[in-house]
Write a structure and sequence with these properties.
The structure is a single chain. Helices cover about 35% and strands about 15% of the residues. The protein is α/β, with parallel strands linked by helices. Helix 5 links the parallel strand 5 and strand 6. Helix 2 packs parallel to helix 7. It is globular. The site of 4'-deoxy-4'-aminopyridoxal-5'-phosphate has 12 residues, from helix 3.
């Protein structure tokens, strides 16, 4: 180690899924297989025609996008915070809200970025094991802590917890901030947004990357009480005032406006998901009931690690982790019906069925 390295911040970074250059069937990063709303293309054309405007800074308040989201969710504009994907929003939330000496609680099997932000910002944390069916044990969250965060539906399990469970955890944690990461909620049951009026310490985070088909544009947001949004903005303006670029702001507004298109795409994914469940079952796979745009599947007779490699060799990318509790599972994003048919065709060849 060089002498000057001793004061360098060391972090264990998050490992994103692969983005292969060649054309593959890409079911490894929970992207949406359909294009974004048609208005997004129009917004890009408008931006191209008005490219001169790029010399100006974007609106630091992201006013139009914030207003569009506030209108869509029937909340005040002072209850919305936007960022560069929900990763940016969540990172800001960790920085802003988790400043205690007590540990932040989150599940042992969950979005692996939580540990990374905790490491980056030196936040103590404690992982609470999911039960044998991958459900949250709500009583584990009753103890003293410095905050709580979990995704609903959870990742990579795709399991949804009922609002009763979410509210129970909130009720027991009114002196800390509770973040519900709803990246996948549009494919699932009711959202925790309905609990905002009752719990001023609740933050709900969302993304345009999944249900709105805009992972490449990087847009995420949080909805919470005006008090918490003020704290988030203070942190943001102490970090980077111009997080959202002009294109993301303009395209985001168009995506939010087209409710009919949004609902139609979500419905298509849910239908393909239901069909994929049947197909996986026929092939002998088991899995928790999926509520996201992905499934978490395991086969009793075939190693997930091997299946992952065999699929990849044949141009089908899914996700596999080598960590103990989830190593028997593959996370498979719901693609188009055609992509899923191809997936099952390849699985049949590999399993020699
Ligand atoms: N939360 C969860 C649970 C996720 O799986 C993801 C996707 N990797 C994110 C947040 C972040 O998504 P994005 O930054 O694209 O909004």
């Amino acid at each position: 180690m060089k002498a000057f390295e001793k004061n360098i911040r060391r972090v264990e970074p998050y490992v994103p899924g692969e983005q292969p250059r060649e054309k593959v069937i890409k079911l490894n990063t929970n992207e949406n297989p359909y294009p974004p709303a048609p208005g997004v293309r129009t917004a890009l054309e408008r931006l191209e025609a008005g490219a001169d405007a790029m010399r100006l800074y974007p609106d630091p308040t992201s006013r139009e996008l914030t207003e569009a989201l506030a209108e869509f969710y029937h909340v005040g504009t002072d209850q919305v915070f936007v960022g560069v994907g929900s990763d940016d929003v969540l990172s800001m939330c960790f920085l802003t809200f988790f400043n205690s000496d007590k540990p932040v609680f989150f599940p042992d099997i969950t979005y692996s970025f939580y540990k990374v932000w905790a490491g980056l910002y030196r936040i103590p944390y404690e992982c609470k094991p999911l039960d044998e069916n991958f459900h949250i044990v709500k009583e584990d969250y009753y103890g003293e802590n410095g905050g709580v965060i979990f995704p609903n539906p959870n990742a990579p399990t795709s399991l949804y917890e009922s609002l009763d469970v979410v509210e129970d955890i909130l009720r027991h944690n009114q002196d800390v901030i509770v973040i519900i990461d709803e990246a996948y909620i549009d494919f699932a049951g009711p959202s925790a947004l309905s609990l905002l009026e009752k719990y001023e310490n609740l933050i709900v985070t969302r993304t345009f990357s999944k249900s709105r088909s805009m992972a490449g544009m990087r847009i995420g947001y949080a909805i919470a009480s005006p008090l918490l949004i003020r704290y988030l903005n203070d942190a943001k303006y102490s970090f980077n005032s111009y997080t959202m670029n002009q294109a993301a702001l303009a395209c985001g507004v168009e995506a939010v406006k087209d409710k009919a298109y949004f609902e139609e795409q979500v419905q298509k994914i849910k239908e393909t998901r239901a069909w994929a469940c049947e197909e996986f079952r026929k092939l002998g796979f088991t899995f928790p009931e999926p509520s996201g745009n992905f499934l978490f599947v395991t086969h009793p007779d075939y190693s997930a690690g091997r299946l992952f490699e065999e699929l990849k060799k044949r141009g089908v990318y899914v996700r596999h982790w080598d960590s103990s509790r989830i190593s028997p599972y593959l996370r498979v994003t719901v693609g188009t019906r055609e992509e899923m048919e191809k997936l099952f065709e390849v699985i049949r060849i590999v399993l020699e069925l």
